[in-house]
Structure formats: structure tokens, C-alpha cells
Fold DUF427 domain-containing protein.
Amino acid sequence: MVRPVPEKPGPGQESVWDYPRPPRLEQFRGSITIDLGGEQIASSTDGWRVLETSHPPTYYLPRTVFIPGALREAAGSSWCEWKGQAAYFDLVSEDTVAPRAAWTYPSPTAGFAPLAGAIAVMAAAVDRCTVNGEVVIPQPGGFYGGWITSWVTGPFKGIPGSMGW
């Protein structure tokens, strides 16, 4: 396995290689928006970030910031060794459905208790997600839900060859 070489962060940047494992939960204060089908389906100035080594932050929003009808329960679940069992949602706008594009931890582990019922979104499955006005880039690979912004440096898990990181 080729070991990743962390990019050197510039002023005001964070390296995902300085994030801990196991991951850390921190409160986020700033603007977050999610657009689907040409409409804004969520907007918040409060949320949480999960920070884990080699991953861009995954943002979680209060369920109450999604417009009515935007969250539709979806079949299936998954397990996270740190947070517990996840449940999924389809994201719905007037003209668009993004299947299983959002998830929550209804009863997370003790270290992630503030996330109970909060919603995370796969940025690649929607039109646009923003953090503090910046359009995010989805974490590569299609499996993880991190959001890349200009203030985080990688390389990021999900790129080819990163399976063993």
C-alpha cells in the first residue's frame, strides 16, 4: 500500500490528516444550504461536523431545517463503528427525488449523542450544498459523505488507492 502524503495546509486551512481517529464531533456555527431540483430544501446556521482522519468533514443539520416533505424514509440501514446504526432518507423536491441521499443516527453511541435525529446529505446526490456561501465538492468515491471546501486539505479517502488508509 502506498502511504498518502498529506498536503500542507495554508493559512486558514485544516488538514484532514490532523483530524482524529476515532472521529470527533464538533458543533458548527455558519451557513449551510442544500438545493435539489432547483429549490432550496434546507438552510441552517447551526449544525455539527464529524471530523475523522483522511476524511473531509461530514456536516449534520437539525431535521427541522428541511422544508416539509423533503425527507422521505427509505429502506435499509448501515452500521458505523463509531456512531452506530444509520437510517436513510430519500431527498424530495417538487420535481426531483434523490434516493437514499440522506441519513441519520436515531440512537447514536454516547460520544455522538448530539447527532440523534440530525441529517447528513450526500453532496453528490443533490444539485448543490454550500458552507458559508462556498459550493462544496463531494468527497470522492461515492461511499463517504464528506464535504470538501477550500479550507480543508487532503488527500481525501475515497480517491483510487485509498481503500487501506
